[in-house]
Design goal:
By secondary structure, the protein is an all-beta fold. Helix content is about 0%, strand content about 45%. It has one domain: Immunoglobulins (Immunoglobulin-like, Sandwich).
């Protein structure tokens, strides 16, 4: 018989994500740099982006889990000067997502 105690509820990821935007110009397109603190047990991270805080969020890249402070540069197609984008970072390990994404941050490209 299954009871409520047989299931563990996924924990929300901590809000340790920061970002800055840089306008595109002659030397390249717009760039957003994200940084976050390492999450215990994570071996890599999935970076998700949306154009609204409620999503939908789409994967724009991954980052390995080395170091205490981690970073990802988003220069993928679709970024425009003056645009605002919402990001979440999903900590992962060999079994999949460690926690549910929460607290998306917004980054505006000047």
């Amino acid at each position: 018989m299954l009871t409520k105690s047989n299931f563990t509820q996924a924990q929300a990821c901590p809000a340790a994500l920061n970002g800055t935007g840089k306008a595109g110009g002659r030397s390249g397109g717009p760039l957003i740099t994200l940084t976050w603190a390492a999450y215990a047990g994570a071996t890599n991270y999935t970076i998700l982006r949306a154009t609204a805080s409620t999503g939908p969020f789409n994967v724009v890249g991954t980052s390995n889990g080395e170091g205490e402070i981690l970073a990802f540069n988003d220069q993928t197609a679709g970024l425009v000067n003056g645009g605002t984008y919402w990001y979440e970072v999903q900590p992962d390990n060999a079994l999949g997502g460690i926690c549910t994404t929460a607290n998306p941050i917004s980054v505006t490209i000047p």
